[in-house]
Every structure is written in structure tokens, then in C-alpha cells.
């Protein structure tokens, strides 16, 4: 089996969307990453068991003035990553506004992964943390854990230190495959799975 899926990456300016995608696709990190204009596209194949998943990854611009353009990308997406920065509560609140917008504008629930970035900064200095991982997990359960079809997951990553990045995309790809199997079997249309793990500081990642 092979699957093509469109993945959209959303979140406010500077949270690390481009860095997350660059680490995953090119295994690079730019400490002076330039702000994205409009959106950029990268593709990568992921193998899940005997299934090939080709992810078309749309990295959107977080600047407010590009918000209407981002809509073009998420409306046809099969899956998405909502990104915030663990050192910025403001970015967490901004992520919520993306989710509200998604819920309003997309025709049916998609697989969503909520990602807190810049974990390396709080591992180096815990006082920098503004969003506890528990808050993110509770948020995911409250907002998306109603069995409404959002296959949601949450984790914390560092694009700088390459922690937890591959896992995000692997989990999404696996959920895409599972969802396809359910649909083919006619079992689980709309069956949402809420699975969120705890980030162990030091272990550096928390995921499903
Ligand atoms: N320490 C640290 N810095 C990071 C990490 N990820 C991104 N950054 C830095 O955060 C800044 C913004 O990163 P980008 O990836 O460009 O952010 P973005 O979300 O794509 O921003 P827009 O394109 O403007 O929406 C850059 O200086 C990155 O180097 C990380 O995991 N750790
Ligand atoms: Mg960017």
C-alpha cells in the first residue's frame, strides 16, 4: 500500500516551524532561520510497516499578514502540526486561535499533532519554560479528545538538538495508515484516538 498525504504546519511567527521541517527533511538547523514568506513545500517518504507514506509538507508563514494564505493550505490537508514554543505562553495561545480557525473552516477532522518546540532551551534553563507539558496534554484532550475524529497527539521537540523530530512525523504517518485501514475496512470512520504522553525532561521528548 502507498499513501500520499498533505501535511500543513501551522503556528505563530518564530515558533520554529521551518526549523522543525528542515531538521526532519534535510537534517539541518539554522540558528538564524529566515521568516517564511507565504509558504514553502518539501516532500519526504516515510515507511510504516509495509506501507509507503509520501508526505507533502507545507510549511506556512506565521506572520499575521499571511494568515489568509495559510487557509489555502490547511483546507486541503489530511494532517497537520500545530506548533508552539515551550518558552512562550503567547505562542501557545496563538496556537489555540489556529485550532479555532481550523475547526471552523475545514470540512472534517484531520490528524493533528501538537508540538512544543525549543525543548533544548528549557533543558538548559528550566526557568525559561512558560508552558508545562501537562497543560498541552490537557489542552489536546479538552479540545480534540471528544471522539470527533481528530487523531490527536502531543509532544515536545528540539529542532536544534534533533530531539523528538522524526517521531512526530512517524506518528502522523502511522495514524494515516491506520486511518486508511479503518476506512478500507469500514470500521472507524471518524474514530478519533487521543493519545498523549508525558515529556520527561532530560529524556527530552514526550509522545504517543
Ligand atoms: N534553541 C532553539 N531555537 C530554535 C529551535 N527551533 C527554531 N529555533 C530558532 O527560532 C527562530 C525561528 O525559527 P523558524 O523555524 O524560522 O520559525 P518559524 O515558525 O518558521 O517562523 P515564521 O516562518 O516566521 O512563521 C530561529 O532563530 C531558529 O533558529 C529549537 O529547537 N531550539
Ligand atoms: Mg518559517
TrEMBL record:
Recorded superkingdom: Eukaryota
Keyword annotations for this protein? Nucleotide-binding
State whether keyword Nucleotide-binding applies.
yes
Q: Which Gene3D superfamilies match?
A: P-loop containing nucleotide triphosphate hydrolases (3.40.50.300)
* Molecular function in Gene Ontology: GTP binding; GTPase activity
A Pfam family annotated for this chain is Ras
> Which NCBIfam families does the entry link to?
small_GTP (TIGR00231)
Recorded protein name is Ras-domain-containing protein
Species in which this protein is naturally found? Ascodesmis nigricans
